[in-house]
Amino acid sequence: MNPAVSWFDPWSPAFVADPYPAYAQLRAAGRAHWFERTGQWLIPHHADVSALLRDRRLGRTYLHRFTHEEFGRTPPPPEHEPFHVLNAYGLLELEPPDHTRIRRLISKAFTARTVQRLTPTVERLAGELVEDLCEAGGGDLIARLAEPLPVAVIAEMLGVPREDRRLLRPWSADIVAMFEMNPGEETARRAVQASVEFSAYLRELIAERRTSPGEDLVSALIAAYDAGERLSEQEMISTCVLLLNAGHEATVNTTANSWLTLFRHPEQLSWLRAAPAALLPRAIEELMRYDTPLQMFERWVLDDIEVGAAGSGSRASGTTIPRGSEVALLFGSANRDPARFTDPDRLDLTRADNPHITFGGGIHYCLGAPLARIELAASFGALLRRAPGLRLAAEPRWKPGYVIRGLEEVVVEV
Q: Is the pTM of this model over 0.90?
C-alpha cells in the first residue's frame, strides 16, 4: 500500500479532528491514490478536483447509462428502496437530461429574487437567536444558533408550520448519515425510516398547497412550468428534502467549524470584530475554504479517465482510472492545496484570490449557495455586534462522521 494512504483514516477520531496533515502527505505522494478500504480513488489536488467536477465522463449516478450489473455493481438491498428513491430524484444525484430539466424548473421557483427577499427574515431570525443566547449568558452555539437558524429559514421557505419544524432536523440527520463511508445496517434502517416519514409529510403538504397555494416554495414548485413540463410529485419531494439536507447541514457545520477556527486565531477574530462590515464577506469565504464542512464528494467514472497526466511533450503519464470505478474528490485537501492557494494553512480573512470549492462545481454546483451566504452573514454579523466578548467555554468534540464533518457542540460564554 502507498505509505501516504495509510495516513488517510476517516474512522479515526484523531484524523477527523485534523485531516490536513494527511492531505498534505497525499498531495505530495501523487495525484490519485487507490484506497482499498472503500474501493475508491482518492483525488487530493485542487486542479484535479476542480476539473473532475466538470468532467462529463463522470457522474453522480451511472443508471442513466448502465444497469447495476453492466457497471459491475451490486444493486442496493430492496429494503433500502425508500431512501434510494428519495435520493435518486434529487438534483444532486441526477445527470442530464433529467438534471437539466429539473434544475431549470426549480430555478423558476428558487430564484435570486426569492432568496434576496428572504434576507430581512433571515436577519430577524438570527438576531432573535443571538439575543436569546446573550440573555442566557451563553450555551451551545450549535443548539442555540447554528441549527435552528437554517432549519427555520428552510421551513419558512417551504411553508412548514412552526409546530412541525422540530421534525426536520432529526429526519435530515438520519438521511445524511448514509453519505458517510461504509454506513452500517442500523444507519441504513434509520435513513429508510426517515425517508418514509419525511416523504409522507411532504406528500401531505404538497396536497394541501395544490388546493390552497400560498407564497411558499412548495406552491412555487407546483406552479413551475416550462415547455409543457412540470415537476412530478416525487421530484418535488426529493427537491424539498435536498434543500433541507444540503442547505442546513452545510450551514450548521460551517457556522460551528468557523467559530472554532476564529477562537483558535484570536488575532484574526480581533480584526473581524474591529471592522465586521468591511471584512465579513471575504472572511466567510476564507472560513469556508479553511475548514470546509463537506470533506469529500464522490463520483462514478462512466468512461476511462486519466488523472495527473503531464503536458504535451513530456513522457510522464498519469493514472488511468477505468470505467466502473468511484473517485473520492477531497474538497478539504483541494482547499488547502499550495499549488492554488498562497500559504494555504494560514487563515487570512482578507484573502482576495480564493477559488475554494466548498460549494462544488460544474452542473452540481450548490443551488443554495446564495442562501447559505446570507445565513452565514446574518448569524456572524449578529454575533459580532451583540456578543463582542464571545469566548469558548470548553474544548469541543468532533462528531465521528468524516464526509460531513462537524462538531458535537460549541459551548460559549458571552
A: yes
